[in-house]
Design goal:
Helix content: 40-55%
Strand content: 15-25%
Distance between the termini: 60 Å
Number of strands: 7
Number of helices: 6
Mean pLDDT: 78
Low-confidence stretches: 151-163, 170-191
Order of helices and strands: HHEHHEEHEEEHE
Shape: flat
Structural class: alpha+beta
């Protein structure tokens, strides 16, 4: 019985360590490592089983919030942004915080239209006022996306530097030649 209890403790500790290694401690979202692992797994499957799409989102006017209201308010803002991204994505996509004010969304079975619709919904959710302990702020975001493509897909296109982030993400796992970027969107509000 003692051996069984030790085994259960060991397995619980191993599970907790793995969860911590793949979770952003502030927002509770998946972290960069978890995103790359999930994207790598999706890319290993034939396209008929998985056509991943990635949207990269960078907050606009985050630094002024930190400067004006302090780092605690900045953290509060990041947590609220994470909650809004999760509400928009529901269980359809993996939401990850890459660090700072950068987020990524992975859709395992994506289309350009689905990525565009998701990008629009994400930006709309972030255009709403955010209530912090120090007051109400309005932020914006820039978003770009990339979609795994076949030989018959359109060549790469980009309307914003944020689309290059998606290509950079793809290139980190050595699949940049298998991606098409979708148009980028931007919405900015003043703080």
């Amino acid at each position: 019985l003692a051996g069984h209890a030790e085994f259960v403790r060991s397995m619980t500790l191993q599970y907790d360590m793995q969860r911590l290694a793949q979770t952003d401690p502030l927002t509770g979202l998946a972290n960069r490592r978890a995103l790359f692992d999930a994207l790598t797994d999706a890319m290993r499957l034939p396209e008929a089983q998985s056509r991943p799409g990635v949207a990269m989102l960078d907050l606009d006017r985050f630094k002024p919030v930190n400067d004006r209201f302090g780092h605690a308010a900045g953290d509060q803002l990041l947590v609220e942004v994470a909650n809004r991204l999760k509400r928009v994505c529901r269980n359809e996509a993996m939401v990850a915080r890459l660090g700072g004010d950068e987020f990524a969304i992975l859709i395992r079975h994506a289309t350009a239209e689905r990525l565009d619709a998701l990008s629009t919904a994400l930006l709309a959710s972030l255009a709403e006022p955010i209530r912090l302990d120090g007051g109400v702020v309005m932020i914006g975001a820039s978003i770009g996306s990339a979609l795994r493509h076949t030989e018959t897909s359109l060549p790469s296109r980009s309307r914003s530097p944020s689309s290059s982030w998606a290509r950079a993400l793809a290139s980190r796992i050595r699949v940049s030649d298998a991606w098409t970027t979708t148009p980028a969107f931007s919405a900015a509000r003043t703080a």
